[in-house]
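Lecture notes, continued. The same structure-token format from the folding unit now serves as the input rather than the output. Read the line below as a description of shape only.
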């Protein structure tokens, strides 16, 4: 959420940030509502002072037997009380309207983020690995003979509809091994604290990480009001909601492996085959809570944590910085990792790592006490995929496929598979 004081102080800078995102100016409407709200607050304070003075004079008028003045003052007190209630209610309604307005406006991009309209304007930072040269036409993951027995979309459709999959046998073992390897790497090599969190959360948690109010249609809500998490960013970030931390506690670095749920409301017609875009999937998430002056360095560190997983698996990838027009709602700056998929002959997103500044912290009221003293300040929050497990499975299968329909698996997974190294053409793990 945005700081109304910053908008008051520099509305032009605020509108310029929105312009870079391709949005119209918003400061005039925001400041008009804010001014009206503050005017009502001031009027309520004036009316309260008038009421207090009249209340004191009521007793004096009664004591000297001035019945006419007594009745006039008593009526004035009642009028002021009613005026205060009305003004307070109006100010509260405007405060709620202002908060809702500010919650629906995306975060402003950092100056270093490249300007652009969409994904075509993203800027590549680096590449790692060389896509394998195949002596046959590589297949998409769901077409590979050795994969087909373990990847069942027909049964999933019978159970749940489109954009679901049932995994069996060797394929689900590789999927599980990937998640375990990611967690172990982040815990042992990267110093993240493993955390297990619920997948059902209260509404305020979804507000805290900006899924609500603007993107309700992208998530699932249960009949009793809980929301299914689109990612454990929601739960991990909200662990500090309402807290005032000591600076010595920061940074807090967490990771979690959870089921994730997304309606994919805006993806009609996109990636309708295979398991690239599912309503239910698994992800190993990374979340960091930092001070404002360390968040950008933390963003680079988290990006390297995600890159390290792909390098460990020997999967070619590229790292890009998203332009202003392609960046997510809550982000100030985002690095995307795109893994090479031979079956599609293109790079596809497998991780987004974003720094959000104090945008989420303001929504959650998450602060810290500076070590040198002074009033509490808002923390900075960061989140990133480390990685999306299903998409990583796709990359492993497609990059490891062989002409006979088998799949050679990365060496990093062998210890998690009991020493097995391949998926045979018939789907057996060998």
């Amino acid at each position: 959420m945005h700081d109304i004081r910053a908008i008051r102080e520099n509305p032009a800078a605020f509108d310029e940030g929105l312009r870079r995102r391709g949005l119209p100016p918003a400061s005039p409407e925001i400041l008009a509502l804010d001014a009206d709200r503050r005017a009502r607050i001031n009027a309520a304070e004036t009316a309260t002072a008038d009421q207090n003075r009249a209340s004191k004079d009521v007793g004096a008028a009664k004591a000297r037997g001035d019945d006419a003045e007594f009745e006039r003052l008593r009526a004035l007190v009642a009028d002021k009380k009613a005026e205060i209630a009305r003004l307070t209610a109006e100010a509260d309604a405007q405060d709620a309207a202002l908060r809702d307005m500010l919650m629906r406006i995306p975060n402003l991009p950092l100056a270093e983020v490249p300007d652009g309209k969409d994904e075509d304007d993203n800027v590549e930072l680096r590449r790692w690995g060389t896509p394998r040269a195949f002596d046959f036409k590589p297949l998409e993951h769901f077409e590979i003979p050795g994969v087909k027995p373990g990847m069942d979309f027909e049964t999933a459709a019978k159970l749940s509809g489109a954009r679901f999959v049932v995994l069996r046998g060797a394929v689900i073992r590789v999927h599980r091994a990937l998640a375990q390897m990611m967690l172990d790497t982040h815990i042992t090599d990267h110093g993240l604290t493993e955390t297990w969190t619920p997948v059902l959360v209260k509404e305020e948690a979804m507000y805290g990480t900006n899924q609500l109010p603007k993107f309700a249609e992208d998530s699932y809500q249960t009949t009793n009001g809980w929301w299914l998490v689109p990612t454990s960013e929601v739960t991990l970030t909200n662990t500090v909601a309402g807290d005032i931390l000591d600076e010595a506690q920061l940074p807090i670095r967490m990771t979690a492996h959870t089921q994730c749920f997304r309606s994919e409301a805006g993806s009609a017609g996109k990636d309708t085959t295979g398991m690239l875009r599912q309503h239910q999937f698994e992800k190993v998430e990374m979340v960091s809570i930092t001070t404002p002056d360390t968040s950008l360095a933390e963003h680079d560190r988290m990006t390297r944590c995600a890159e390290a997983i792909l390098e460990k698996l020997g999967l070619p990838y590229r790292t890009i910085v998203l332009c202003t027009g392609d960046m997510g709602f809550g982000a100030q700056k985002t690095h995307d990792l795109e893994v090479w998929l031979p079956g599609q002959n293109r790079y596809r997103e497998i991780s987004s790592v974003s720094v959000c500044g104090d945008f989420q912290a303001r929504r959650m009221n998450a602060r810290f006490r500076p070590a040198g003293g002074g009033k509490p300040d808002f923390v900075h929050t960061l989140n990133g995929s480390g990685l999306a497990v299903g998409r990583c499975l796709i990359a492993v299968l497609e990059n490891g496929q062989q002409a006979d329909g088998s799949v050679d698996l990365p060496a990093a997974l062998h210890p998690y598979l009991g020493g097995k190294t391949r998926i045979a053409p018939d789907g057996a793990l060998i």
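Point for the exam: The chain is about 40% helix and 20% strand.
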